[in-house]
Write a structure and sequence with these properties.
The N and C termini lie close together (11 Å). This protein has helices at residues 11-14, 20-35, 65-68, 88-94, 107-120, 148-158, 167-173; strands at 2-7, 40-45, 73-77, 99-105, 124-133, 162-165. By secondary structure, the chain is α/β, with parallel strands linked by helices.
Length: 177
């Protein structure tokens, strides 16, 4: 069975800059999963440092209002991997999941780490590149012209083990059917 992971779609990230396009695509993917009665699992980064925008218990750590009502499960994490020291594996086993679709934030950290960790655990993985976003930019990496989503999507695609789609391909293929 298939499940959708929505990673770190929280106020402290989504409100950082204009992520309206990414949130819109994530919502469309969620709605496709809901139409097929497939589980939607939200991963929620929580930090112990009070200065963090994702400080546990703060409004920044809350799921973004535009997506909050779609969560079938909400699982907290404290590292980029959604599997490390979380209940994700237990939930996936209980639901008999063998194929994970990855969307959310931050592309080059939490989304990528989770996709690789899922593959390492034997899951088929589909990474929906344009339904991810990042607060970082080419300036942070001192790499002018770097398209972080495209770079991560290309690297994962080259593995030949993680399927990478953009939303249009996801929609055209009727991937959930």
């Amino acid at each position: 069975m298939k499940a959708l992971l929505v990673i770190d779609a929280q106020n402290g990230i989504v409100n950082f800059k204009d992520f309206s396009e990414e949130v819109s695509l994530i919502k469309k993917v969620i709605q496709a999963f809901k139409a097929e009665s497939l589980p939607v699992i939200f991963m929620k980064q929580v930090d112990d440092m009070e200065e963090s925008p994702l400080y546990k218990g703060s409004s920044g750590s809350d799921l973004h209002d535009s997506l909050n009502d779609y969560a079938d499960y909400v699982i907290e994490k404290q590292t980029p991997s959604s599997f490390y020291n979380t209940k994700l594996s237990e939930v996936l086993e209980k639901l008999n999941i063998d194929h994970l679709y990855v969307t959310g934030f931050n592309t080059e950290f939490c989304c990528m780490f989770t996709a690789i960790s899922a593959f390492d655990r034997g899951y088929k993985v589909t990474f929906i590149e344009d339904a991810t976003g990042t607060v970082n930019s080419e300036e942070e990496y001192e790499m002018p012209g770097l398209d972080i989503r495209d770079f991560v999507g290309t690297a994962l695609h080259w593995t030949n083990v993680i399927e990478v789609l953009d939303y249009e391909e996801f929609e055209e293929e009727g991937t959930l059917r």
